Fold:
Amino acid sequence: MSEETPGFDEKPEVPADGTPDEPKAADSAKDEASPAGDAAQDVALLAQLDQARTALSERTADLQRLQAEYQNYRRRVERDRITVKEIAVASLLTELLPTLDDIGRAREHGELVGGFKSVAESLETVAAKMGLQQFGKEGEPFDPTIHEALMHSYAPDITEDTCVAILQPGYRIGERTIRPARVAVAEPQPGAAPKSSGSDAAVAEGEAPEGLDADAPDEG
Structure:
C-alpha cells in the first residue's frame, strides 16, 4: 500500500510542447479579431477624412465667393464715386460757361486788359485743370452730335455741310459734351457742279494739256 506524500498535489497534464491549451486558444482568437478591428478603424478614419475634405471645399468656395463679391463692391463704389465727382464738376463748370463766354467776347473786342485780363486768364486756367475743353472751329465739318446750327446758308465751293462761323464755342469734359458748339452752317449749293480738275479747266479755257500742241492739226 503506497503512501501519499503530504503537501504535494497532482500536477495537471501538460502537452508535449509545454504550452497549456486554453491560453493558446485565446491568443488565436485575439489574432483573428485584430485585423477586423483595424479595418473598421480605418474605414471610420477615411469617413472622417472625407467629411473634413468636403467641409474644406465648401468653406473655400464660400471664401472665394465673398472675395469676388467684395471686389465687385469695391469696383462699383469706385465707379459711383467717379461718376458723382464728374457730375459735380460738370454742374460747376456749366454755371461758369456764361462768364467764359463774356471773357471770350471781351478778348475779341480787345477789352481784356489790366487786372480783368489776369483774373480772366486765371479762371480759364482753373477751368482747364478741372478738365474743361473748348471745341468748335470754322471750316470743320458739321456734326449734329457736337454742333448746334443756329444759322443756315448755301455755298458753291463746299462739298459737305460745313461750319462757316462759330457763334458760341462748345465745351466738353473728357468725352462728355456739356454744351454743343453753336454755329452757322453752309450746305453745298443745289445743282452746283463739282470743282473741275486743273487739266479739265485748261481744256475748258482753250489751253492744251501739257505735252500737246494746241495748234497741231487733228490727225484724224
Q: What stands out?
A: The beta strands are 132-135, 147-155, 162-168, 170-173, 176-179, 181-188. The two ends are 178 Å apart (CA to CA). The CA atoms of residues 138 and 185 lie 10 Å apart.
